[in-house]
Structure formats: structure tokens, C-alpha cells
Amino acid sequence: MRLTIEAKHETLPLAQTFAISRGAKTQADVVVVTVTNGEFTGWGESVPYARYDQSIEDTLNKIKCTKPAIKHIDDHRRLNAILPACAARNALDCALWDLKSKIENKPVAQLIDLQEVKSCVTAQTVSVASTQEMQKNARALCNSELIKVKLDPDDVIEKVSAIHEVCPDSRFIIDANEGWNLSLLKEVAPQLARLNVALIEQPLPADDDEGLTDYQCPVPLCADESCHTTASLKQLVGKYQAINIKLDKTGGLTEARSLMKAARLYELDIMVGCMVASSLAMAPAYLLAGGADYVDLDGPVLVAEDRQNGFIIENGIMKRPDSLLWGSGR
């Protein structure tokens, strides 16, 4: 069957400023790919990320150059051979899975042999800000079981203590986004362990994390920027106890599923995460939730207006609607 592939840039305003240790933004710039066989159309969404030297222009160009090679709905492996793991490959891979789902009238979960998930606990995010502002924002999430706290190197214990004060029953994932050093990690980790912190995500820069080798941190450490594809895993053993799987890093659902299976062989815990985007980007990742220890897919509440038939997130419980916008068949 002849496939027609189109890609476009969309800007999604955010509900409020989203800040991490590297900076802040007020909108999400995404790429949306559609693939049609003339009767059915599949689509996918990805986020080109400057941290990985990706841009909207470069992503659109990669998709344009790849289009002639994609001739069939099962060309996922061909796609993986043509493109490196990146946002362009993610959007194409997910669009092909959605198209296959519609053509065969089967959910993607069934096609790819993953557990169908009706609901799960997702982390909800508190962005970097002043201690007072972070406490205020956390108070609105006090009924959530799992909260992700974005932190820079400043006032770490003060900020987490303030959030713990208003959310005493929540567990926390601390995400430094490569913004700490080993000395700071060793200083704050014992105190964080006493503040319901379940995981510390990417405390050190990905190219400077050798200091974690054999470090016995009192809180499990999770690799994010250090972990992209299955090829990344071997070098993480001995440094991290968990990995964060994001489809924009793996280059799509196909590789993400392989990474999840391989990580279990290394006895690593799994977080399923996301860039800031809409439910269209969350839906393929959500299929991994049934095999994950932590889920962080709160993109739909970070954007000012989500897509129609997107996820419902209330008090940290993420539910799929009866007719999800991606991967549900016809």
C-alpha cells in the first residue's frame, strides 16, 4: 500500500511556566506526523529537545528525507535502521503504530504485546521556583500519591522540607536535570531519604557521572539524560538503580519496549517519562505503564489546552477515556 506522510510544527501554550535547572518555558514546540494509506490515518507527536541538539527544523527535515523509504505500516525496524533515536523517529514510529491499529482494528497494546492499562498513578510536577512558590504549588497537589519536584542546586533541603510539610503523605521524585555535583548529592541524599523521597533522577551531568560508580546512595538513583536506548544500559549498571524511558529518547515505542525488557534483565527499576507535550505524545508511552515502577506522564495537565479525547488526570490518577485519541483501533 502507498503511504503518504506529512509533518508539521505545532505550538502548545502551557498552563503555567515550566522551569527546570536548565531554564524555563511557556510553550511546548512539538512535531505532529500523520501517515495515511488513503483510507485510514495514523498520527504521532514528538518533542525535539535542544539538550540533544535537536530542533523543529532539523526534525522536519529528517522526516522529509525519510519519507521515501517508508512504504509499509510494519516498517518500524527499517525506520530504526535509517534514523538514529530522535524526535523525528519517535513521531514516525508512533504514527505507523496508530495507522496499523486502525487498519487492523486492534489496539496497539495487542499488536505489540503490551498490557492494556485503564488507569495508573502518575507523578505530577512542581517546577523550580522560590521555596514559597514551590510550597504553594505543591499544596494544590497534596492529594497526589507521587510528586516530581524539579530542583536546581539551591536550597535543596529547604525546598523539599517545605513541600513535605504540605504533602506529608506523598512520595517524591527529585529531578535535578543534571544540575548537581557529587558533593551536593552526598550531602543532601541522607536527608532526602527521610523526607519521603523515593527516587533521585539524574543528579549529575550525563557525561560526568562516573562518580556514581559503586556509590551507595540512600535513595535510588534514576538515569534520564544518561539513558536513551538499549545500547545505553550496560554503562549504567553500578551507577543507577532505575532508568527513565522516554519515547523521544528511544526514538519511538518500538525501541522503548525493547529497552524496558532489557532493563529488567539488568534488574533496573523503570520509570516511564515524557517531555512536555499533549495526550497524543503520552498515549504510546502509557502502554508501558503496566510494566513500570514509576509513571511520569503528566503532560496533559501542563499544557493549557489538551487534545480532544485525551487523558483524564485527577489527584495523580491517570485514566484513559473510552475513546483514546491514539492507538485504540477504529
From TrEMBL:
<dbReference type="InterPro" id="IPR034593">
    <property type="entry name" value="DgoD-like"/>
</dbReference>
<dbReference type="Pfam" id="PF02746">
    <property type="entry name" value="MR_MLE_N"/>
</dbReference>
<dbReference type="InterPro" id="IPR018110">
    <property type="entry name" value="Mandel_Rmase/mucon_lact_enz_CS"/>
</dbReference>
<feature type="binding site">
    <location>
        <position position="175"/>
    </location>
    <ligand>
        <name>Mg(2+)</name>
    </ligand>
</feature>
<dbReference type="InterPro" id="IPR029017">
    <property type="entry name" value="Enolase-like_N"/>
</dbReference>
<feature type="active site" description="Proton acceptor; specific for (R)-substrate epimerization">
    <location>
        <position position="150"/>
    </location>
</feature>
<dbReference type="GO" id="GO:0046872">
    <property type="term" value="F:metal ion binding"/>
</dbReference>
<feature type="binding site">
    <location>
        <position position="201"/>
    </location>
    <ligand>
        <name>Mg(2+)</name>
    </ligand>
</feature>
<dbReference type="Pfam" id="PF13378">
    <property type="entry name" value="MR_MLE_C"/>
</dbReference>
<dbReference type="GO" id="GO:0016855">
    <property type="term" value="F:racemase and epimerase activity, acting on amino acids and derivatives"/>
</dbReference>
<dbReference type="GO" id="GO:0009063">
    <property type="term" value="P:amino acid catabolic process"/>
</dbReference>
<dbReference type="InterPro" id="IPR029065">
    <property type="entry name" value="Enolase_C-like"/>
</dbReference>
<keyword id="KW-0479">Metal-binding</keyword>
<dbReference type="InterPro" id="IPR013341">
    <property type="entry name" value="Mandelate_racemase_N_dom"/>
</dbReference>
<keyword id="KW-0413">Isomerase</keyword>
<protein>
    <recommendedName>
        <fullName>Dipeptide epimerase</fullName>
        <ecNumber>5.1.1.-</ecNumber>
    </recommendedName>
</protein>
<dbReference type="InterPro" id="IPR036849">
    <property type="entry name" value="Enolase-like_C_sf"/>
</dbReference>
<dbReference type="InterPro" id="IPR034603">
    <property type="entry name" value="Dipeptide_epimerase"/>
</dbReference>
<feature type="active site" description="Proton acceptor; specific for (S)-substrate epimerization">
    <location>
        <position position="246"/>
    </location>
</feature>
<comment type="similarity">
    <text>Belongs to the mandelate racemase/muconate lactonizing enzyme family.</text>
</comment>
<feature type="binding site">
    <location>
        <position position="224"/>
    </location>
    <ligand>
        <name>Mg(2+)</name>
    </ligand>
</feature>
<feature type="domain" description="Mandelate racemase/muconate lactonizing enzyme C-terminal">
    <location>
        <begin position="131"/>
        <end position="222"/>
    </location>
</feature>
<keyword id="KW-0460">Magnesium</keyword>
<dbReference type="InterPro" id="IPR013342">
    <property type="entry name" value="Mandelate_racemase_C"/>
</dbReference>
